[in-house]
Amino acid sequence: MDVLISLRRWPARRWLVALGTAVATYLFIALPTDLVPNPVFGREIPPTAWSYWALAVSAILSGLLAATYVATPEEAKAQRDGKLGMAGAFVTFFAVGCPVCNKLVLLALGYTGAIQFFEPIQPYLAVGAIVLLGWALVSRVRNEYACTLPRRERVDA
C-alpha cells in the first residue's frame, strides 16, 4: 500500500517518462515479435491471446520502473535495483515471441524442440518477467523515501 502512496507523490514529468517508456517498450517488443502486424517482421505461429496482455503489463511495469530513475543525483545513488527490471524486459521478449521465429531457440532446440519444449514454457516466462519487473518496481519505490542509516564502525576487541 505504501507503494501506491509513493506513486501518488510523483511529479508530472515522472508520469510522462512512464507513459513514453511504456509505449516505447510495447512497440520495441511488439514489432519484431509481430504482435503489431508490420511489413518487416512475420510469424509462422500466430500469437496467443495472453501474449498481448503479458506484453501490456510488462510495458506498463517497465515504464513505471524507468520513471523511478527520474530523480535527483542523491536519490539515484541510493537505489540500484535496475538489473531486475532489465532482466524482466528481456524475458518478456522471449515470452511473447514466436517460438520458431527466434533464432537462438531454433539453434539450441531445432524446430521440433522449439514447438515441444519452448512454446509450453512461454507463459511461465511471461509470469517470471512480470514478477521480476514488479519486484524491481516495488523495491525502488519503497527505497525511494526510506532513510539510510549511517554505517557503524566495527570495533574489534
Describe this structure in words.
With 157 residues, this protein is mainly α. The protein has one domain. It is 69% helix and 0% strand. It contains six helices and no strands. It is globular and about 60 Å long. The termini are far apart.
List its traits.
membrane, transmembrane, 157 residues, Integral membrane protein
Share of β-strand residues: under 5%
The unreliable regions are: none
Helix and strand content put the structural class at mainly alpha
What's the N-to-C terminus distance?
44 Å
Mean pLDDT: 77
Query: What's the structural domain tally?
Result: 1
Fraction in helix: 55-70%
- Give the helices and strands as they follow along the chain: HHHHHH
> Total number of helical segments?
6
Keywords: Membrane, Transmembrane, Transmembrane helix
Transmembrane segments: 12-31, 51-72, 84-109, 121-138
Protein name: Integral membrane protein
Please outline what is shown here.
This protein is mostly helical. Helix content is 69%, strand content 0%.
